[in-house]
Amino acid sequence: MATIVHFEIPADNIERAKEFYTQLFDWKIEKHDGPMDYWMINTTDAKGEKGLEGGIMQRQDPQHPITNYVEVDSVDEYAAKVESLNGVIIVPKSPVTGVGYFAVCQDTENNVFGIWETDPEAFALPPLEDPAEVFIAVQIAVIAADENYGVDEMRMIWYEIETMDIFKDKDFKALETKMFKAFGKNPSELAAFQNFEIDWIIKCANEKLSVEQRKSALSTATKLAHADKNIEGYQKDMDRREIVVLNRLQEGLEI
After folding, report:
1. Segments in 85-165 forming alpha helices (H)
2. Range of the domain at 143
3. Model-level pTM?
């Protein structure tokens, strides 16, 4: 029988939430060793009786609720069952590197819950060692959030990026293709990056790019977000997803 195995608490201030639950229940709360700001909760009591594991994460939007995760054999299978029963998939199947996969769903009464599949071989975030790859990853995080993006769009801005010193003696097109594939994205289909993927890109950018390179990466990503199909120049309106990604990049890149 499917069982709840994990709960997740959103917080506006993680340190404040940690203090509250530590003092209230004596829970042990420690930083998860991963690319995103996530804190694991151990609810084992003083007698050694193990309880549910949980987590605290940054609140993603004002309506972000506490979410219970139910372990299943296959996220794909149960996601299909959710939709067949008139439920909604809010966050599609997503990996937790080396641990498993999850999806976030909404039932017929508008309650939110998660499904979890344990898999130690879950998709690993791509190792971004080459600064040029990191630079492109910043750009495609924005591109993937654009509902109107097509393969032939934004050529002028790509050409501008391609001429930068960071790509000197490198095959720009090959790197671009490699990064799309590394993150499992298709430039001709909307496939917005998950927050943990963006956090990973930010972490790599802060490690691999100079301050000036990070400024340049954010500047060109902003131009890509403003670019309009078949129009030279920029438009004022951006997709909401692009704005969210750009804000996350702006906050995360240490510039």
Report:
1. 131-143, 155-162
2. 131-252
3. 0.55
